[in-house]
Amino acid sequence: MSESTRFGFDHLDRLSDQRGLFEHAAGTLRREEHGYCTDDNARLLVVASRQRDPADQVARRLGRAALDFVLVALDGDGRCHNRMDRSGRWIDRVSTEDCWGRSVWGLGTAAAHHLDASIRRRARKGFDVAVRQRSPWRHAMAFAALGAAEVLAIDADDEQARSLLGDALVVIGPIPDGSWAWPEPRLAYANAALAEAVIAAGAALGNTDDVGRGLTMLRWLLALETGNGHLSVAGVGGRGPDDDGPQFDQQPIEVAAMADACWRAHAVTGDRRWCSGITAAAQWFDGDNDSGVVMYDSESGGGFDGLRADGANINQGAESTIALVSTMQRAASFAPAP
Which region holds residue 37: left if phi is over 0, alpha if psi is between -120 and 50, else beta? Predict the structure, then answer.
């Protein structure tokens, strides 16, 4: 795969219309009948905001559309819709589930990093609305913490962001005693995001104990999910203490979350040994995985939807393609670890 394809937004562009990013695809073709979701548009806002090439007009346009979608999804009190049908009608109630957490993540990332000042301003206003809410769910709070940490990095006086980070650490919870060094009884989804959120929150709040806790979680998870010299992430059904690997279907969001978390660990500690986790995540897409198959379409630039024991699910939906782009963005930040 060429570098231009690795980091291209062209397939995401094909999955989008004037309203936003469609969720599902059949092969390379978007499935409009399944509509849109805020989860994916918020994810798109994250990766578009990381894009540092000012000449990439596709990423810039998609980032603006993703921001528009997320802002429309927000209720006045900061809760969030997730599901929109193909006609543009919301078909769910507002909540503080994952869509809220990912919206805070996307808005915080755009407010801190997008090259377009107008997008940064609008995203910050949306963040200030969404950050008022809290969620009882670990993953939603972890996603939100990643956005709050970005805002606190550019505005150390933002007390709402600071408060959310403290609350996220409480909701995620401690590591239990014993060999299962994870705050949940089973691994679920986007698992490394929990560890990243603890690292990011601890660093932003100046709490070395929380940074250490997050690093312990990530070190344990990376060791658990490395088998036969390559990344072997939890399957779609999750993983418990008595489950053996490899598991299937493996989801690209697991791999992207691992790349993000290892990137964060390196950013906080300066320890280049974390680069090996980022490299392993990129190599998972390149075929160094439990089935030995490449997990992208080199023609379209889309990411495949899941790794099965017998190969790849070759549908190229929004979540999987964003996971590919996100992972390769992180991999581009580092040379392989020595």
Answer: beta
State how far the Cα of 127 lies from the Cα of 113, in Å rounded to an integer. 14
Which of 154, 172, 190 represents a domain boundary (last residue)? 172
Query: For residue 158, what are the CA distances in angstroms to 40, 123, 131, 183?
Result: 27, 15, 11, 28
- The rounded distance, in Å, linking the Cα atoms of 310 and 324 is 20
What pLDDT digit, counting tens, does each position of 138-180 carry? 999 999 999 999 999 999 999 999 999 999 999 999 999 999 9
Distance CA(250)–CA(31), nearest Å, equals 22
Nearest Cα neighbor of 41 from 110, 141, 124, 125 is 110
**Nearest by Cα to 233 from 190, 294, 197:** 190
> How many domains is the chain built from?
2
User: What tokens were used for 55?
Assistant: 């000449």
Average pLDDT of every residue of the chain: 95
pLDDT at 210 over 80: yes
- Of 172, 200, 220, the residue that ends a domain is 172
Write the single-letter amino acid at 23. E
Domain encompassing residue 67: 35-172
Q: Which residues contact 249 (CB under 8 A, 6 or more apart)?
A: 235, 236, 306, 307, 308, 313
* 129 and 51 in a common domain: yes
Q: How far is CA 200 from the centre of its chain?
A: 14
CA distance 268 to 257: 16
Closest CA to 261 of 313, 201, 184: 201
Q: Does the pTM of the predicted model rise above 0.90?
A: yes
Q: Where does residue 300 rank: exposed (0-12), middle (13-18), buried (19+ CB within 10 A)?
A: middle
pLDDT at 5: 42
Strand partners, 235: 250
Amino acid identity for residue 181 in this structure: A
Q: Which structure tokens are listed for 262?
A: 């290892």
Structural domain includes residue 21:
no
State CA 54 to chain mean position distance: 23
Place of tokens 């995540």: 281
